[in-house]
Amino acid sequence: MRAVRLHDYQKPPAVEEVPEPTLSSPLDVIVKIGGAGVCRTDLHIIEGQWAEAMGPQLPYTLGHENAGWVQEVGEAVTNVKVGDTVILHPQPSCGLCLACRAGRDMQCSDAVFPGVSNHDGGMAEYLRTTARGCVKLSPDTNPADVAALADAGITAYHAVRQAVPLLPPGAVAVVQGAGGLGHVGIQAVAALTAAKIVVVDRNPEALKLAEKLGADATVLADGDQVEAVKELTGGRGGDVVFDFVAEHGAENDAWAMTAPAGSQYVIGYGGELRIPTLDLVAGGKRVVGNIVGTYNDLVELMALVDSGRVTLHTKKYPLDAATEALDDLAHDRVRGRAILVP
Predict the structure, then answer these.
(1) Which end of the chain is least crowded, N or C, by CB within 10 Å?
(2) pLDDT, tens digit (0-9, with 9 covering 90-100), for 100-154
């Protein structure tokens, strides 16, 4: 089968022939990929940022946002069958450790993260996952239309879901970055809360999309974005600021946009947040990290998709155009999410 393989950091991956995955345990599931999302994390992986944290042994196959059709199942699998349409939670978990028992899939002590850790991902024709990673979808769902919700979608949804108690009617939610994650976050805030939504982005086209998705106000990130947000909020800032950028100084802008007693949710990464401790104490602010989301988050998000309250905006590429898709993402030429279709 064809797969997008990373051989060296700081160099583009290559599309090449590799053996198809096979079942290795009774709970394994082989999925024929119908869509694989292209994520900024893939760019960070290629840059080598995850080399120490996850230690993938190169070469390996990229791709951690996957959906498709069940091709083969292990003898103990009962929740899906061959032919089912599925979206895959990005980190199959054991179900037995304390974190799993508490519903914190991403902290599973025995988890794998295909496409990020030392396990082949789904930028390929087939992927091996587990029964615990499969969320069954309606048979008429096109996997390429929803694949990126497996990571970008639940990452945004998980952050918003946590912040719902902080966003009663009359509160202000600031969304910084209306790209692949942020455009889902805008819709999640609109679906789950009655807060006023202010969206900040450097791209006018992204702001146009934000307006269509439920933003009450938009701010062009042209150097005066912090002051503009303050002006829109009576000088206070956002009760919750969702930072889907968190690099190149945006992380510190997000802190400055956060109101006293407010919360900054850090979802993007790559930068360095520097905060005087007096600001934390005197302002009573909080900084909250966010790592992907749970299996239940994915189930809830797909229910919002089915009801039409969340839509993933995509740009599709054939698998052989993976390098082009990654380059388009790196240079901000993708509105919404890039999807590879084998």
Answers:
(1) N
(2) 999 898 899 988 889 988 889 999 999 999 999 999 999 999 999 999 999 999 9
User: Predicted confidence band at 90 (pLDDT cuts at 50, 70, 90)?
Assistant: very high
Q: Indicate which residues carry an active-site annotation.
A: 41, 44
| 147 and 7 co-located in one domain | yes
Calpha distance 257→285 (Å, rounded): 11
Task: Write out the DSSP string of 293-326.
Answer: --HHHHHHHHHHHHTTS----EEEEEGGGHHHHH
Rounded CA-CA distance 99/62 in Å is 26
Q: Is the pLDDT of residue 49 over 90?
A: no
At 116, which CATH number?
Answer: 3.90.180.10
Burial (CB < 10 A; 0-12, 13-18, 19+), residue 148, is buried
Q: Structure tokens of 43?
A: 């760019």
